[in-house]
Each structure stands twice: as structure tokens, then as C-alpha cells.
Amino acid sequence: MYDDLELSIEQMFKFGVHFGHKKSRWNPKMKPYIFSEKNHIHIINLEKTLILFKEALEFAHHIAVNGGKIIFIGTKPQARQVIEESARFSGMPFVNNRWLGGTLTNFQEIKKRIKYLNEQEEKMAKGEFEKYTKYERLRFKKEMDRMNEKMGGIKKMDSLPQAIFVADVKENDLAVKEAKKMKIPVIGIVDTNVDPDPIDYPIPANDDALSSLRYIVGLMAKTLKEAKMNSKIALNQGKASLKDNIKKRTKNNSN
User: Fold this and answer.
1) Is the dihedral of CA 17, 23, 24, 29 positive or negative?
2) Which residues, at least 6 apart from 61, have a Cβ–Cβ distance to it below 8 Å?
3) How many separate domains does the chain show?
4) pLDDT tens, 86-105?
5) 57/176 same-domain check
6) pLDDT tens digit string along 2-48?
7) Quick check: is 148 in a domain?
8) Cα–Cα distance between 47 and 53 in angstroms, integer?
9) Quick check: 168 and 207 in contact, CB under 8 A?
10) Can you point out the beta strands (E) in the chain?
11) Which terminus in the chain has less CB density within 10 A, N or C?
């Protein structure tokens, strides 16, 4: 899925990135990114999308190569699976159910709940719940299932992210507001019915079609995965170079 993705107008056209919403539903602030109108549907200017998507990918790459985290967010039914798969592929946290208020603005409290969830799961894995009755074990299991539904995608996150990537901005305006309040950069897909102003790195594109979501979210995941791999290779090369230098210096000192 990811290997074949590349940043090009041809692929964007192929995956239907250019299809916006009906003219009657548009947000006038999206006018600079609209190319034309066809059958009362706005067509997004892919040349502008190409430029802005490239900027967003470069920014995301910079974060990942320096060991940073970006939360993938997408809660529309058609976005949920894509968000989870792509986030897991790139080793990033994600939210694909309802955004939990305070995830960013009250992270210390969220962190406590994450810690509790992780501790409970660890106890269950070790068989420590076997001493309880079947009813009590079932109650614990249901509690963990509920918590995983809300926080499962962020339970490995021990600090605030360096950015968030939102696939459905209108549905997750609370996440965007929290990020802005915490001065966390926002990367987001902006369809023709979206206000692009709060988005630091807007990607004008179709945020409804599964093919478009798979392309944009998938390419973001591919970029982050490659950045992390490059960072790891550079780190290993640096360690190897350091070892060689130490050996040379030790050898020279012994002569």
C-alpha cells in the first residue's frame, strides 16, 4: 500500500483528491485553493495542493527525524481504519474514535489514566486477576476495553506531541482548538467546506473519499516511517564512527 505512493499531481488525480463539496456548502476562505466548479461541485486546484502537501510532509519529516511524535486524528467512519493502520505503520500515536477533551490541554490528567490502563493490562498479562471472581474479571476487562477505545492509540505517549495531523478538521475542531491553545502545530486536510485559518500546514483535498484519505494519510505515514529509519541509520553510523575514533585514539595512545 505505502510503497507505491508518491507525491504527484497524477496520483492525486487518480485517487480523487481534487473533488470538493457542493458549491452550496463551501467555505469562502477556501477560494484560493479552488480551481473550478463542475456539476455544482468544487474542484480543488491540485497544483496548490502539491505545494502545500510538500510543505506539510517536509515539516512532518523534520519532526520524525528528530525523534518527535505526531498524533494522527481521524474519527469519521471512513477514516478510522486508515488512521489506525497508518499510525501503527509509522509508529505514531493516534485517535480514531471520539476525541477526548483535555487530551492536550489537560495532558497530566490524561497521562495518569494512561498509566492506570497500562498497569492494569500488565497485571492481566501476568495473571494477577486470576484471584478475582469471574464477575470481577469481566468488570475489569470491560473497563479496560472502554479505556482502550478512548485512549488505546495514545497509551504509549508519555509527553505532548510535536504536532497533530487531522484528517477530518470539521469533526475534530476541539482537537485543533486544544492544539492551538498549547501552541502545537496543526497539519490538516482541508476540504472546500473547511475553514483553513487555524491550520498551520493545510492540505487542500477531499476528506470524504476513502481513496483520497488512503493516499494522503498513507503518504504522511510513509514519510514519517522513512524519516525514523533514516534517523536510526544516522544514529547507528554515528555510534560506529565514534567507536572507530575511540579505537584509533586508544591505539595511538598505546604507541
Assistant:
1) positive
2) 223, 224, 226, 227
3) 2
4) 999 999 999 999 999 999 99
5) yes
6) 889 999 999 999 999 999 999 888 999 999 999 988 888 999 999 99
7) yes
8) 10
9) yes
10) 19-22, 34-38, 41-44, 70-73, 94-95, 163-166, 186-190, 201-204
11) C
